[in-house]
Design a protein that fits this description.
Elements: H1 2-23, H2 28-47, H3 61-84, H4 87-95, H5 97-108, H6 115-135, H7 141-170, H8 175-196, H9 203-229, H10 234-256, H11 263-281
């Protein structure tokens, strides 16, 4: 359980760092690029992928490239959502992306659904609607509209990443190889985009990005290790991770960033947690 707790804490620390650095004027895209640089190195050291025997013809490079584009793009949407919608709503939206992933599993991968899984998906969708509606407000409508857009981008984007990863692994490419190539590709494309934009590089963004990468990779490594050690109890890992991340996000939003918890947001939070529990019991 310590691994799940630590992984969830790292996940929320990523969001807290992105939100804090945005307030201090850091360049999120530069941070994201350096994040993938250190993540590539750590992935190679930790997972020890067999990169020497990668097949040029059999490796689905279009998927690796697609993930290389999608990952930094969604990470950037996450940073903007944290700024415009807040850490509380963003964490809930990110965790409930599993609802769309499961729907994709049903339509694309012919996964069978039981009543609990359907109930969990239904509760998750209603929870996301509550969160989006709570972002609507007459005051500062421009910022609220951006918040809604970025919240939905996080919700859909993380589900898209999950689906692409599932499809990649279904083709037989090993997870460590996929993950490492994905990080390398994300780094190269992010740097390429920044060079095209003639971005003014700053050391503070590099340092913050490396710290972000270490925390982000720790989240992934701890989560994977938890699944390995608790391979007979995937529901505990799934539910524990999602519930703890949401709860930590709520605590960080309310106590550290002084965000307000509206009634409709609280309803979305309760429904989201209930949905996660249903999905965990359905595993």
């Amino acid at each position: 359980m310590e691994l799940i707790f630590s992984a969830a804490l790292c996940s929320v620390l990523v969001s807290m760092l992105l939100k804090w650095t945005k307030q201090k004027g850091f360049d999120a895209l530069q941070m994201i690029a350096w994040n993938y640089a250190i993540a590539s190195v750590l992935s190679y050291i930790w997972f020890k992928p067999d990169l020497a025997h990668i097949s040029i013809s059999n490796t689905p490079w279009w998927l690796i490239l697609g993930l290389g584009v999608v990952l930094p793009s969604i990470f950037l949407c996450l940073a903007k959502s944290l700024h415009s919608a807040g850490i509380l709503k963003t964490e809930i939206a990110q965790r409930l992306s599993v609802v769309l992933s499961l729907l994709a599993a049903y339509f694309l991968f012919q996964e069978q659904f039981n009543q609990l899984k359907m109930l969990g998906i239904g509760l998750g969708i209603v929870a996301v609607l509550c969160i989006v509606l709570s972002q609507s407000s007459p005051s500062n409508s421009s910022l609220n509209q951006k918040g809604i857009l970025y919240l939905l981008s996080v919700w859909v984007g993380y589900a898209l990443v999950d689906v692409l990863l599932k499809y990649t692994t279904s083709l037989g490419l090993q997870f460590p190889v996929t993950l490492t190539l994905m990080f390398i590709c994300s780094f190269l494309l992010s740097v390429g985009y920044l060079l095209i934009r003639k971005t003014q590089w700053k050391l503070q963004n590099c340092i913050a990005g490396l710290v972000l990468g270490i925390i982000n990779f720790a989240n992934i490594a701890l989560y994977v290790k938890a699944h390995i050690l608790l391979k007979d109890s995937p529901a505990i890992v799934f539910a524990g991770m999602n519930i703890l991340v949401v709860l930590f996000g709520v605590i960080a939003g309310l106590l550290i960033f002084k965000e307000k918890l509206k009634v409709i947001t609280a309803l979305g939070l309760v429904l989201g947690l209930a949905g996660v529990v249903c999905l965990a019991l359905a595993i």
